[in-house]
Amino acid sequence: MTRSILYATAAAVLFPLPAHARQADNPDATLPEVVVTATRLPAIVADTPGARVIDRAAIDQRGAVFAADILSDVPGLSVVRSGAFGGLAQVRMRGASPGKTLVLIDGVPVNDAAEINGAFDLSGLELSDIERIEVLSGPQSSLWGSDAIGGVIAFATRELGGFGADLEAGSFGTVRGRLAAGVSTGQYGFGAWVSHFATDGISAADEADGNPEADSFTSTTIGARGRYAFTPRLVVDGSIRWTESDVDLDGYPAPAYSLADTLDTQSSEQWSGFGRLRLNALGLAHQLSVSASDISRETVSSFPSVFEADRQVFRWQADGSAASIDFVVGAEREDTEGSLSGGRTEKPGTTSAFATARVDPTDRLSLTGALRFDDTDDFGSKTTGRVSGAFDAGAGFVLSAAWGTGFKAPSISQSVCDFCYASLPWPVLRPETAEGHEGAIGWRSADGGMEGRVTAYRLEVEEQITYVAGRYVNIARTTTDGVELEGRARLGGGFDLSLAYAWTDARDETTGARLLRVPEQAGSATLGWSGDRLSGALTVRSESDQDDSGGVREAFVTANLNASYAVTDKVALTARIENLADERYQQVLGYGEPGRSGYVGIRLRY
Fold it and tell me: Which of 186, 263, 355, 360 is least crowded, fewest Cβ atoms below 10 Å from its Cβ?
């Protein structure tokens, strides 16, 4: 299959080729060539430094329930989870602090504008309705604007055809269920689903430190997705997703003010959705869309708080091709509102224009460039860009490189100095800016059964905003140098192996100290297998020591085992064991993770 056909197929159906799937009737099939679409112009992952794709087959193979369960396996991405079930879960991509990774669901930005850093909480993002996850590491502001200094994580919900039901139960009084139904034809498609997760949980504060109280967590998600083609040239589509969750928290009670069991709770409600019209006219493929997201959080504790945030994005985008150049141009307006617990409400906004183009000077060389202009209502304007190239060096080797810039406007909390106690005047904050460059060497065997890539990068963030002495200030610079290795192989006999490793040196250049909650070394290995009826995977993951608030979180190694058995082509039994070796470990200092736990379930597909 030629690359031009791959690009055209991805752009036409908006469901790129799977990243890890193996055809059930051909267990020794070659690895497919993967396409990523969060680059606006569909691009082959092997030609795109920092791009990774996790498809539905990989999610099922590993038995991942929530987004945080599988994102930890992406090299260079550190998941910071304060509590095993429902605890705040944020990501640091290539050392960039929370809020510098943009999260999209069906193209809708869902970062929490009322959160201190503007970061998205991944703890309640359940994966049962997710078709694929695309990860773009490195500055992506030229594609998506503010908040994309570290990169972008894009989730796409699945289009449904038929009826499906899942039920699972196991340790800690955990129950999980899902119902879904839909119809899909060439002209139209519509589906809806509901999922629910409930657990008695464990203590968020580590039980080994004398905290026996279990902290429960419940989450319900309802969603719908549809499309209709009036003609081959005129199509409308859209989706909506709503989640409500309740979690018990642990806090820092007097007189010790150290992490311990408390009666604190937090409830949250969030929804996101989009509507889009796609029209082919004047030689261009136009997209007119409106998207929105809304988040509300209420914490009941000794220091109660209520936060609300919403965001709307109005976008026009046009795709076309001229003189052997594929391009995308567009404009958008983003309006955001955040209401803070102190009573302050702010309404920042940004007007933007962007363009991306790709040209293939030869059959072996591909060049891509992107440029974006963002005019913020409160912090001036910024132009960002990115250039990348990929060269087919022969013998299965692909050499690729990229350079890009990024920026992030201060969050609402930072701009109004929420929770500040320092005397006035407070410093006038400036947007954070970033520059990143990377180079990669990839290889793919002639039979397509093995592939790997090694990437080296540097990410520099200027004017980083941090909280110092009761106020927010811009500090000079942070720098991350890193190496990321990844590989996949079909081993024969139904077995496959995936490997990932990252070395990350993230430092505050003003002090020389390592950045907190970014392990220097992290890696994972997944051995999967698939037979006529039985399939599954063993995943082993490890992180080195990492600096944390108040000390050093120790290194750990943990393993999960997941399996399914197809009783018929419509009924499957599932089982998974987490923390197989019953390792005592922490992802964040002071917050315990579950010991060995098991779950069994049934999956129906009609």
Answer: 186
d(CA 576, CA 268): 28
Copy the structure tokens of residue 417: 């100095």
Cis before residue 255, ω within 30 degrees of 0?
yes
Give 163's Cβ-side CA count (13 Å radius). 3
Strand partners, 376: 350
Q: Pick from 269, 267, 271, 167: which is nearest to 217 by CA? A: 267
- In 3D, which of 499, 394, 388 has the Cα closest to residue 443? 394
Q: What is the pLDDT of residues 342-394, one digit of tens each?
A: 788 999 999 999 999 999 999 999 999 999 999 999 999 999 999 999 999 99
Q: How far is CA 397 from the centre of its chain?
A: 28
Helices (H), ranges, 171-220: none
> First and final CA of the chain: distance in angstroms?
31
- In sign, the C-alpha dihedral spanning 261, 559, 556, 461 is negative
Q: Looking at residues 177-191, what average pLDDT do you find?
A: 97
- In order of 27, 74, 508, 531, the CA distances from 23 in angstroms are 6, 23, 47, 11
SS3 604: strand
* Residue 37: predicted pLDDT: 85
Whether the predicted pLDDT of 293 surpasses 70: yes
Name 348's Cβ contacts closer than 8 Å, sequence gap at least 6. 113, 336, 376, 377, 378, 409, 412, 415
In a 3-state reduction of DSSP, which class is residue 161? Answer: coil
Q: What is the pTM of this model?
A: 0.93
Cα–Cα distance between 531 and 359 in angstroms, integer? Answer: 43
Characterize 583-593 residue by residue with b for buried, 16 or more Cβ atoms within 10 angstroms of its Cβ, and e for exposed: eebbbbbbbbb
- Angstrom CA distances, 218 to 165, 246, 375, 425, 566, stand at 19, 5, 40, 43, 29
